[in-house]
Each structure stands twice: as C-alpha cells, then as structure tokens.
Write a structure and sequence with these properties.
Layout lengths: L1 H11 L8 H7 L9 E7 L5 E7 L1 H17 L15 H6 L6 E6 L9 H7 L9 H11 L1 E2 L5 E2 L7 H8 L1 H14 L2 E5 L2 E6 L9 H12 L10 E4 L5 E2 L2 E2 L8 H34 L9 H16 L4 H16 L13 E7 H7 L5 E4 L5 E7 L2 E7 L1 H7 L11 E2 L8 E7 L2 E7 L8 E3 H4 L3 H11 L1 H14 L13 E4 L2 E4 L6 E3 L9 H5 L8
Parallel strand pairs: 14-17
Antiparallel strand pairs: 1-2, 3-7, 3-8, 4-5, 6-7, 9-10, 11-16, 12-13, 12-15, 13-14, 16-17, 18-21, 19-20
Helix pairs in contact: 1-3, 5-6, 8-9, 10-11, 10-12, 11-12, 16-17
Length: about 525
Amino acid sequence: MKLLNEIKLHEFGTNKHPITVKQLMHFSNAKLGDKRYTVFSIKKKSGGLREISKPCYQLKCILYVLNIFLRSLYTPRECVMGFTTGRSVVGNAAVHAAHHYVFNIDLKDFFPSIPQARVWARLQLKPFYFSKEVASIIAGLCCNRNSEGKNVLPQGAATSPLLTNAICDKLDRRMCGVAKRFGLHYSRYADDMTFSSMHNVYKDDSDFRKEIKRIIEDQGFTMNDKKTRLLRDGRRQEVTGLTVNSKVNVSRKYMQDLRWYISMWEKEGYAKAYSRFYISYKKEKGYIKKGEPVMENVIGGKLNYLRMVRGASDAAYQKLQQRFDKLQELVFVDNQTDKGAQFVYVQPYTYKEFTSLFNTDIQLEVSAGNKLVGKCTIDGIDKFISIVKAAQRQLCPTLDGRKAGDIVESSGLSKCYIALCRSKGKNFWLMSLKPLRRSKTLSIQNAKVNVDDLFALWNNEGFEKAAAAFDDFVNKSKAIPECKEKPKKEYLDGNNTLDIQSENNIVERSTSGCNFSEDDLLAAGADVDF
C-alpha cells in the first residue's frame, strides 16, 4: 500500500486522498456494477459495435497507479509489440517488411475472452507471485461484469493491455515455437498476430494452419475467420495499418488524405475546408467523440505519425509540415472572444453558408431546461447547437410558456450566424443573431512582415499588388518588395483612418484562406469587426 501511494504522489503530485485497503476492497466488488464502470458502445470502422468500460474517477486513479506498479514487474516477450515501452506499430511492421508472404490473424473478442478467474491465476505466477488474497483483489479491480453476466477484462481499463500480454505469454511462447519450426517470423500487437516468410506454408488445411488454430483454441481464444488473410508479394501487404512490401510505410490513401486536408485549407479557406474535413473524418473514424473534431489537431497528429513512420528527415514529411506550419501562422488564437468568455470563435458561418456547406437544415426546439436550442443532422449524426440567451428570446418570445420538446418556427432563423467555437481544446457550435467576430487572427508582427513596405506598396501600386505580395509572403516566403518612399503614419482609405505603424496591427484571416481581401489588409487591432 505504501508503494502504491508513493507512485500516486510521484504521478499526481499530491497524496491528499491516499489509496487505502478499504478502497481496494470496495472497488474490487463486482456487485457495485455501474458504480465502478460505465459501459457504452462505439461504432467500429468495419461495422458493428465495440463495448467500452470506463472506470469511475477513483477507480481510474487506482488502476493507473496499479498499472505502473505491474509494469515495473513484468516485461513482455520480444515478439510482443503492443502496450509496452519502446515498441510500437512501426516496430511490429518492421518484423515483416520485404517478405513474399504475410499472414494476418485476428483474435475474436480479445478482452472479453479473458475471465477474471484466469487473471487471478496468472497474478500468482512468475513474475508477480502474489498471494491468492492479493491476486483476488487486483483481479476484482481490473475486471468488470459484461452484458452476459461474466466478469472479464474490460476494454477501457488502464491495466487491461498489460494483463492481456501477461496472460498471452504461453500463447506467444508456443507461437514462437511454431514460427521457428516452419522458418517464419512472428509478432503480436494486442489481438493482431502476424506471420511472414519467403515461402508459403499458409494454405488451407496445411499443417501450419491446423497447428496454430489448435494452439489458439487451447489458450481460450478464437480466430476471427473474417479478418484472417494471406497477403502475397505483388499486392499491398499490410501489418497493423502500415505497408510492408519493401519497407515500412504509410498507405497511399493516408498520404492522399493528408495532402487533401492541407490543400483544401490552402485553396478554399478554413470555413469550406472544415465542412469537408468533418464529413471525411467521420467516415474515417467510424464515430466522433463528444464535441466536434479539431481539424488542426487531426492534421498535426497525422503529421506526427508520418514522422514516426518515415523519420524527421523524410522529404515528403518536411514539405507537408512546412505547409501546415504556414497555415498555423494564420490561425493562432490571438484574442479572447470577450473579456468574460471562456471560449473563442474559430470559424463563423452565415445560416446560408452553414446549411449549404454541411448539407443540413436547422430546427429550433425547446430543451428540458426550458432553453431554445438548434438541432441538425450532419452526415447522419444528430447535433445540438447552443443559442446565446439574447437570441433565444428574440427567436421565441413565448419561450417561458413552452414545454420541453416543442418545435419552434421562427422567421429570424435564416438571419442567424452559426460559429464553430473552442473551449479548453474542444469544439462546439453556437448560434447568434449578431455577426460573430473571429477570435483566430493573423498578427503581422507574428508573420514578420514589413508593415511599412506592405502599405507603401498598396499606396504606390494599388491593392492588388499589395494583396499578391502578401499572399506570396505567406505561402512562398517571398519578401515584400522594399519601397524607398514610405507612407505617412496615417493611411486614409474611405472612412478608415488607420495607424499602420501601431504595434497592434492585426490582419483578420480571410474566409477564402490565403486570398486576402482589401478588408484583410486594412484591419488594424482586434476591435475591427467583419
């Protein structure tokens, strides 16, 4: 117990609520049911549902600390590439690169196939050597009752990956023996088992196929025949999502998607790019977590993965990263939405733009809290749009007399603005009757552009020349042409008198991306509202 609390102090920086024996006994009781784990389902890419068990906060902390402790005792075999320090999908794929034959096996219902009794028994063996009582408590903490009433390892607990590796020790040892006997390479990443070789021993009813099926079933698992496949040289060979024909690489589709996201953003601007990204991302993931996806984070994550696979010196990675960095310069969050707000406006849309780009209609409905909300469906997913308080009353003057579930008709709906907003790294939608100013801006100082030369070019040769020069600066890193004749401190254009040498020069990002408008170059300071 002392060791667990020392780990907790090291990881969380506090021991205000230490782990106690009473806590462990309490949370190891499976009869607590949903007080320990919350069970929900997410859609799989391949169809069907995947059951996830989310531990409550206290149990989550205990399992996190317990996992660190167990990890200090146990190291998986060299053939195991998943859920262990220093190994990854890249290392797993590298084992099978440049082989004529790659044979993939998937274990069906991997986590639910492991009962609590098996976890209890394994914890008493090498290298854990726990007593029956301690093993019983740990197994109780780490397992949950499924829909069939059986206590099994849940998918979603911090300890499940390590325990599955420990339980699969005998399976891996026997598979390594089979691989050696037939002259093959073997590795396992979670429930994905892979063999590869220069010769074919994988035919149906072959001694190899019969042997591995017997071992898998003997160890309490079942082969998923739908996902069992033999990949020959000459067609795309894939291991844990990576291509291994000649070397480890991402798929052609992965590169196409990444280039498409960046090109869309460059050519069409954030507004249109996000609407297309949203639908594409949903299809790729199969589901979207609570809130809306952050396009910049997704692109950044894909680039990080590409760097991990190909290396930081890869030319394709470097070019894409440079293009992304330039776009990032245009969209960093510079100012708050307002002084009291805890969120920023990422991208505003008019009602017409929103419904057209996302191919949807918005319906007004009274919620359970007697609030007016917007409802729409984006690519098959139902979405709620929050509405600012002032707009709720204007759209529905009789809101106080309405009941939850009432549909509201309002002629003012088509005049609304819908903004993609961000709070604490999460996106959500907000509706207002007033135009919503973007919080994402481009600082001229941040972009290191010579403000005097830019406005002198505009003053001497016109807006088109200045806009083209600014576009070249942002996209091609070309310097703004130097002008000997500097403009006056105040530049007059129509009714706008602007202090162009102010340290607060801010250029609002255009909805058309890098095709800057006259207003873009005129904007000075965060108070300009478009």
